[in-house]
Design brief:
The complex is a heterodimer. By secondary structure, chain A is mainly β. Chain A has one domain: Porin (Beta Barrel). Chain A is built from five helices and 18 strands. In chain A, strands 1-2-3-4-5-6-7-8-9-11-12-13-14-16-17-18 form a 16-stranded antiparallel barrel. A two-stranded parallel ribbon of chain A has the order 10-15. The longest helix of chain A has 21 residues. Chain A is elongated. Helices cover about 35% and strands about 0% of the residues of chain B. Chain B is flat and about 40 Å long. Classes of the chains: A mainly beta, B mainly alpha. At the A-B interface, α2, β1, β2, β3 and β4 of A face α1 and α2 of B.
Chain lengths: ~425, ~70
């Protein structure tokens, strides 16, 4: 909360200072003016090619500090830095990002395995290069993510083609990713602590991911754009969580398990066996995402809808909306709303039944305690604000952005929890170098 | 599938509009691009909280959420 208060105070100060320094430049006109300036620079470069080289590239850097906290005792602190260099005239750009996640948790899942609070650090980076001299462009991208018990990398390429004077842009992409899922600590001991981690060479579960996407971006009018993207994902490997133990019950008890049953109730009523989670070894995913953006006089509305389904029988709908209002020439604010609802995977049970006997265990083939695989809905609401803080001639050369959202999730068929409330905030400073 | 065809049909109909380059002043407004969107941290939170994917980059690494 102290961090949020500091963010809010900083934002208010920035609004006040920017209101004083407000000027009459229109942001859209400035964008056009910048393009004109680019053409002028190109002409100058042509005229003096043999005598002097002119750097027409645009360099940007940004720093973001984000925090997340919820009432399930999970907190995340995420600083990240990003940089880009772009030459619009040559159609080339290079972008990079480095992000750190510091996660601290003692959620119901962890408590149910009798483990104490743990802290884990994830380091992730990505690099993206694009070359689009005229109407055809190609992007190569790579990403890397590392933490004590999880290593992942991804490579991808995307091609774009502008048609009909850039009224239509088609895109097609392919990506490949590989994850190594490891394990730290033993049951009933502090998990996720570096020194006690099992090396990936001794224990790891590989998961391979392939993704394909096709997209179309269409100008729908002089102030409206629309986009439709299809994503296909093929995942192979054991994605079961190596820390998650699933309680088993007799059929009679399972039928009476209450929604959000407490840890005490589960302990008193479960069977002695407590197997690890086990999910199917492959998953095929399909998603359609539609985006619409419209510029009114003084505001911009952005809508996004995603429909998703996979071979585990999880179907979901995600709707996201932002309405950005100009407040003067340097400031904009927006409300943000997001709603996500999903069905459960086909093997989801609030309480799993085991018919074990003296002869041995008789467990369900697939079993999970991952709440994000169960039926749920999530409502997110909040807003954001940005302030251009660049110099008088080019206020857009620097920008400060503050976003705060509250997230409520309702778990419809789970043990331990029936809801979760969280808050995520971020403060970003971007500057043109 | 019917919904997809409907959306595609609507897009196709609206695509009959041709916007000349000199008519794109509003489209060039900074808020029309992706600069006002969820940051990397918020995207990661959504990815972990929602059992779905799509609409992002093709070269994303895994969530690391075991």
């Amino acid at each position: 909360m102290r961090s949020l208060s500091a963010h809010a105070l900083l934002a208010i100060l920035m609004v006040a200072s920017s209101a004083i320094a407000d000027d009459d430049d229109n942001p859209a006109d400035q964008s056009v003016a910048r393009k004109d300036r680019g053409e002028q620079l190109a002409a100058e470069r042509t005229a003096s090619t043999k005598t002097q080289l002119v750097d027409t590239s645009t360099k940007r850097a940004s720093l973001e500090i984000a925090t997340y906290a919820d009432d399930d005792h999970v907190t995340v602190f995420t600083p990240s830095i990003a940089g880009s260099i772009e030459n619009v005239l040559d159609g080339a750009s290079l972008k990079g990002r480095y992000i750190v996640d510091v996660v601290s948790a003692a959620s119901a899942d962890v408590v149910s395995t009798a483990s104490p609070r743990w802290t884990e650090v994830r380091n992730a980076g990505s690099l993206e290069a694009t070359y689009k001299p005229k109407t055809f462009g190609i992007t190569l991208a790579g990403s890397l993510s590392s933490e004590p018990d999880y290593f992942s990398f991804g490579l991808g390429s995307e091609m774009t083609l502008d048609l009909n004077e850039k009224n239509t842009t088609l895109s097609a992409g392919f990506g490949y990713g590989h994850d190594d899922v490891g394990r730290c600590g033993a049951e009933n001991s502090p998990a996720n602590t570096g020194p006690s981690c099992t090396s990936f060479g001794v224990f790891s579960r590989p998961v391979n991911r392939s993704t394909f996407n096709l997209g179309i971006l269409q100008l729908l009018g002089s102030a409206t754009t629309g986009a439709l993207i299809m994503d296909i994902g093929l995942e192979n490997g054991d994605q079961s969580k190596p820390y998650r133990y699933v309680p088993m019950f007799t059929a009679d008890v399972a039928a009476q398990a209450p929604l959000g049953a407490s840890y005490t109730w589960v302990t008193q009523n479960r069977l002695p066996e407590r197997p690890l989670e086990q999910t199917p070894l492959s998953k095929h995913r399909l998603a359609f995402t539609g985006r619409l953006a419209h510029r009114f006089d003084g505001s911009t509305v952005k809508l996004e809808e995603r429909l998703y389904g996979d071979t585990w029988a999880l179907f979901a709908s995600t709707t996201d909306a932002r309405w950005i209002f100009d407040l003067g020439k340097r400031v904009a604010i927006w409300p943000h709303a997001r709603f996500h609802a999903q069905t459960a995977v086909s093997f989801w049970k609030r309480a799993y039944v085991s018919n074990s006997s003296i002869a041995g265990w008789d467990l369900p083939e697939f079993r999970t305690g991952d709440r994000e695989l169960g039926p749920l809905w999530t409502a997110t609401g909040g807003g954001g604000l940005f302030v251009y803080v660049g110099g008088g001639n080019d206020p857009q050369s620097a920008r400060l952005t503050l976003q705060i959202d509250g997230i409520h999730t309702s778990f419809l068929d789970d043990l331990y929890l029936t809801s979760r409330n969280g808050i995520i905030s971020s403060l970003t400073f971007e500057v043109e170098l | 599938m019917k919904l997809i065809l409907l959306v595609l049909s609507l897009l196709s109909l609206l695509a009959c509009t041709h916007v000349a380059p000199y008519e794109r002043g509003k489209l060039a407004h900074p808020t029309m691009n992706d600069s006002v969107a969820a940051g990397p941290a918020a995207e990661h939170v959504y990815a972990v909280h929602e059992g779905a994917f799509g609409g992002g980059s093709v070269a994303e690494s895994g969530c690391g959420c075991n």
